[in-house]
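Please annotate this fold before class:
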Amino acid sequence: NRIHKGLDSQTAHTKLYNELHQQCKMFLRKLESEKIFSAIFSLNGNRHSSISILSISFLVIALCMLLLASVFGATGDHIVEILVMAIFGGLNIFIAIREEKLRKTERARRMLDILSEYFGDDSKTFLGNPTSYVSKDRPVNHSFTMVWAYRDENVINLPLNMLVEGDVVLLAPGQTAPIKVCKLDSSLKKSAYVLEFGQTFNLAEKSGESSDESLDYRGKFLVLESFVTNLVRDELYDVDNKPVSPAENGQYWILQGLLFKFIIPLILCASIICNTLRLIFIPDDVGPWWQMMLTLQVNVIMPYLPLCYPIISIVGNMYGVARVVHVYHHPDRMEWTAIFYTLRDILRGSNRYLPRSCNMVHLLGRVTSFCCMDQHSLLSLPNPSVSKVIFPDPDNVDTQLEEQLSTKTSNSEITIDKTESSEQLPQSSEVIGNIEVKDGNVITLVKVLDLSVDSQDSLRFDDFQWQNYLRNLKPIGLNALVTFTNLSNHNKLNISDKVLDQGTSLPITIYEWSLQQLSSAIGFSEGAKRPFKKYVEIYYVDNSITYKSSKPLKRYRVPYMLSVCLMEESAGNVQMFSQGGATVTLDQCSEYWTGSNICNLPVNSGLRKAILDVFRRNSSIGFCLVLAYKPIVEKISYLKNRCLISRRKSTAGACSKSEFETYFMDHCSHEYSTKKPVFSQSSSNTSHSKVDEIKLEGADEEAILRLFQSQIFIGMLCFEHEVRQNVVSLIEHLDHAGIRFVLFSSENEIRSRAFSKKLGLETGWNCHISLMQSDSQRKANVDGAIDLDDSNNDNDENEVSYEYPTSTAAKLPCGTAAIRPHLETVDDVPLLVPLFTDCTREASLEMVNIMQEYNEIICCVGSSMNCTNSKLFSRSDISIAVDPEFPKWCENPTEMDEDSSVSYRGKTPLVLSSLINTFCCPLLYNCNNYVAVTNVIKEARILYYGLHNSCHYIILSQISLSLLLLLSSCFLLPPPLAGSHILWLSCAIVPLIGTPLLLSRSSHDMMSLMTGKNNQHRKASFYLQNKKLKSLYLLLKFVPSVVISLLCYYLTLRFNCNRKTDGMCHFLLGNRNRSGNGSWNGWLTTDIQDLTIAQNQTFALMLEISIGFIDTFNMKIWRSLFSNRMWLISSSISVLGNGSFSCKRIRKILRYKAADTISETREIEIRYQTWHEFPFLNLLQSIFSIAAGHIQPKSCLDHYAAGQEENGYYVVFDGEGEAYRVYCDFTSEPNFAYTLVTSWKFSNAMMIPFKWQGYNVDSPVNEFNPNWESYRMSKKRMKEIRNLEGFTHWRFTCNYDTMERVDYRDYVRVQFAKYDFIDHDGHGCREVEYINVMGSGCQSCSTFFYQLSGHILSVKGPESKSNCGTEFKDMQGIEIPKLGNLWGNYWIGNYNPAFRCQQDGNSTTNLWFG
């Protein structure tokens, strides 16, 4: 019996705060009640955690075995290891439990932070006064879900999620209930009429209302439950219902699916069997039983224990999130201080960006589908714009008829001036004489002018000659300007419709902003409407159309026409301007304006058919509005300042005549709220009193109906939503990145396809699917539900009977119920289409679930003001909310900026509603800049693969250590690593080297990679069966290094053993013949220092494996080795740390003795002085690592550095990574490695590349097939080799192919620093390091060189006038009289056979770089 008047802002906000706060606290208390053992067991099978029950069990077993080894061995050697393992293991378990709890409570804590920020501790600081709410008259589109409600005794536009129990909302007939509500009767008390969520308010008997209510009727309903109560509770528990990220899935299957279930038990069993056999068969050559059966088993599984990887993984993930957050806020700069503070807050438990429950690095780095749930204000501009202006084409008027018509209408032709004060329309209604108009006689076509929106959001005509049609456009522009500004009731009027025998209604809206933009584009300004003053306001509704289509419509519009009579104050005449649907308005038009004349418009005219045809085509993809005009000649002073409503109703019987009902109201500008309270017990339940409505009958009604008749058709407008200019580029960037853009459209197929085509999406065959329910399901749900945005209706007016073809030729499923069977039995096309039409909230959510079931990684993008998106945000892999722009509605655009109620800044209900809707979203963008998400995706992708790289290195290093220990047992070697070494490498060296690999970069374009799907249901053998190549690739990254490390360890032990036993050492078991050796034949007693030196070499294994991970995808080390500076620094620190840990003091004494002459040798002696002699096996290990594929040699010098000593052909790589063969000389000169670049026989001396083209010209011969007879390397590769580090000299030799040595006869060597001939063009004296001709030579002397682009490089003989003073003499000291050119540019008849290069036709000349 209580009277419900609605809530005040303070009470409503307190209720909202209390309900949200209570839900979050209840959720947190439930999780906090879990005990420590429950928290530990919750890690079992948890894919979000890197620790499992198995890993904890292995850790406990290892600690127990070490403790037993200490007891049985009566030593304290393992005490430090036990303490370190216990501390690190306990710390990792604690952090894992903490991270899991933070992940589960992240959403609840974020909601509490939002409430605390906006309400404060006392929940009284929130701004909620009436001026902070959105006005009820402000137009909205589908990106907003709002409802009229009473707050502080005022009707406001309230977001749905702000509704609380006790609110009173206003629902129009045909509107769906936003939440469970109860109808209020005339005394404002609860009635028995209750609507559940989604049910439609109909004027039925059970509602207690008459079907003859006023046309602007809205019923008052009491809200029975808060909107967010159940919604927030579901979203809090949805944190475990989301799919696991690809990174966490991969981590789960590697650690828990492969390592702890298969690899560790297998390695442990193999180690136990191997050491047991050793203990049985060779007990005197191994250690004590407790060491063999306990210590070694712990050592082999110690690298896998959760000692460092969980912490590194968590910190790496949080660092990646901090980097992505920084790019989100500052895409143009990198501030490490800001990143550090963000990382600190995240590690402390900050929930602002949901780093644990919605990791942006894991999800944005691997997203495969970018799903947009709202198109208005996000993809398109908030207001629909005029896309076409249609009017009778004056160019198609027959010339003779035009002359005839012009003579009859010369007195009535009106000229329209451009002055604002004299804008006039045709004032005469004179009819052109008895002209029989048939199709095509007067006019058969209409003129269509296209318009588009420019970068300043202004309309402009696409046709640059549009001003030629100003005489047609000016009446249209004036109608658009003055009509909507003088209609005061169009936003409040609801038209009752009985087409489907239901009491539904639909608000009539017109596009004020778009019409104003059109009038401005035509040339009108605000001053053009000043001469006109509103006289009468008329609304005409046609309810006589019968719905005949066999296909149910989701939405429909009642045919209508809006008219306003205006008085021109200067002339005193009255003119009527009309706007409405095509059929209704054209029925009232008997004439049309051609731009110069007024012509008849018969019912069956070609113009009418052309207009209706254009209307049908455009109304299927947009909204059409017909404009008409009529000068008023009869007296209507008695209607002044009245608001008339005329409704045509159909009566029973097929041939019966339609009846009209006409009302006029005295209060045209009636509002739903006034200054005085609107609620009283005696107040009517309608929005205004029925006494204000007076029904007209008889002559009065006929007079009103005559006002509508005989109007002049002036044109038609088509409205469409224009795509934002930056959205198309966003879709192109996503497509380039392998991310599929998917649009979920709530509109029908035709409109959705038209809009998708503007976005650049595929709209043809097999490119869209309708999520509309099947026919049997639709019939039960056709309830006449309406949409407040009438631009989104399926059909218009009596054209509802016209069924447009909407299906494609493809056989695609319709509705989500048919999609799953199609995917299981037919194909996966539904997962590939870019467009889904006829989407509802339930259908969209179900389709997202289907896509996730088939391993798609979904990024959901939607409006932050659409409350139906909150569930989608919660269930998607990752979601991005966008604050939509409100449609413009005021005359002055600057007023929009002054309206704080529609601003997303400050503490307003709008901002709070947005945050409540999007508390599951890590990112919140503005509608104008959300296209910058591509920068965030790129950064996330780079960090994802860097994190993937770092984790792979750590895991492979752990496997390498374990495999090294197992292989040493199999080959009967002493343990290559002690327990302290394993802990040092696992907890210090590997993290120190592996963590900087997070910053690894790839030489590939990261935004052009196909990331792949999220394989959630793969088996444990996934990597071995389905990823054979990848597994082989990973094995090659560490197995060769493990083998080489073991070989170096063995050789080091054998070297030291042979040194002490004079070669009497056993090839496997060491010095087993020496008495009193002790354990391991003395390696753990008398020779422990030698064993320690050998064990310390294993450190190089970790460093070498990391080299293969510097580049994310490539192994081109020399190109990327210095790209990761942090890796270089950490590697240097690890080298120093490992040296300190092993307590080695290495001194190098390098003695370098250079010979006085070039023929003498250089000697390098390196001695290592440590506690014992330490061989250079680390160098050998590096050589084998190079051979395993870690380094690509660039020249012979790289092969020489890798230990190659045999001359021959080798493969090198150029600067582009392309492999080619070269001949290498390693032995002819000590400490030199030469690469052959040119060689030719004397018989080929006249070939162009060997005589007429210098080395400054690119003239390769047999570039990929080096030989001695005819070979010349390309200039590009010559320059690449010359520029490599270490290449300092070039030389000429003769007959190297037959001699295979260099005796320095007929030989010249020059430093590149003295003469670089590759780019030289000219001649002159150059200093040589050594030259010898026929046995006579000199050192550090000058020689005359000659090279032009048309002559190959050569040395001039003694007959040259410029021989730089060099005298060539034979062995007896006699000057050589005739020598010619040397080492090139040979001349027939001018050569000396005593010169080796010119002995005979098979003599060769060889050019080398070294």
